[in-house]
Amino acid sequence: MTIKAERSEPTLATVVELAHKYRAWGRWGPDDELGAANYVTPDKVEAAARLVRKGKVISLALPLDSSGPQTGDFGRVNPIHVMLQDGGDVISGAQDHMPVLRYTDDAIFMPLQCATQWDALAHIFHEGKMYNGYGPEDVSSQGAKRNAVTGLNDRAVGRGVLLDIARAKGKPWLDQSEPIEAADLQACCESEGVEVQEGDFLLVRTGRLAYMRQQGSWGTEGEYTGGPAPGLALSTADVLCNWHIAAVASDTWGVEVRPNETPDVFQPLHIVVLVNAGIWIGEMFDLEALAADCAEDGVYEFMFVAPPLTITGAVGSPINPQAIK
User: Fold this and answer.
1) Quick one: which of 2, 64, 192, 319 could link to 79 by a disulfide (CB 3.0–4.6 Å)?
2) 224 in a domain, yes or no?
């Protein structure tokens, strides 16, 4: 009889070991600010374009409005949209100083990471360093001088792959705090008949958004934004880094399983893949429509386009990712 050994709980030492193992600092030179986005080469983009066969475009973004998931935790609130000029200004004559033309105008205030978004390589530090060994002095009150999100301006285009973990496990959504292990990613690839390739944008569906919608709310006390959630376990660092993907994104607030497996490290996978391997992280992607489409046609690869806003020095950016099939 074979007795399966219990897996030991990962700790800070585990995180540090993985961080050093997969550290890509200097791989693309001492001044690099692209990280794993360097894997997105012109031939990768060309190959991704050939995946477009139906001309079907699927948005993966949450709405930017007051009904979003934010509660004020971490200083993040939902977008505040205001009208600078509206129909009332037209009716009241406030614009009569202009001949013939009338107009409406608006503005928005929002934390850049309050909805579907990219984490920049300047977003996370460990032991006083961000990706490529740059220090906190490179992020001032004026923004990031290095590793800003704008590094993805012309790199967030390529082959996207959806790993629908929930569907692969025969569930509408994963259980609360259910970890996704490395073996789960590999098994999902096999069940979908897809192979993750260098430079890919990997999208991992837990079904958490579907669960929240079924509940009719974002949960109590910030459940969606930082509370218990299914997500990637630390073990996935091995496959994510060895696959040489450009980015990984999911339908949860922080991509990782919550609570974290490491009681002494907050968001340990961010430290390994973002800070050290330079893999970009996307959060709060709405993968429901894409998952349904992929299940219908059996095609889990597509062209993926998701450039950040060109906000100089930003350490994150809202995006409207597109899957094009």
Assistant:
1) 64
2) yes
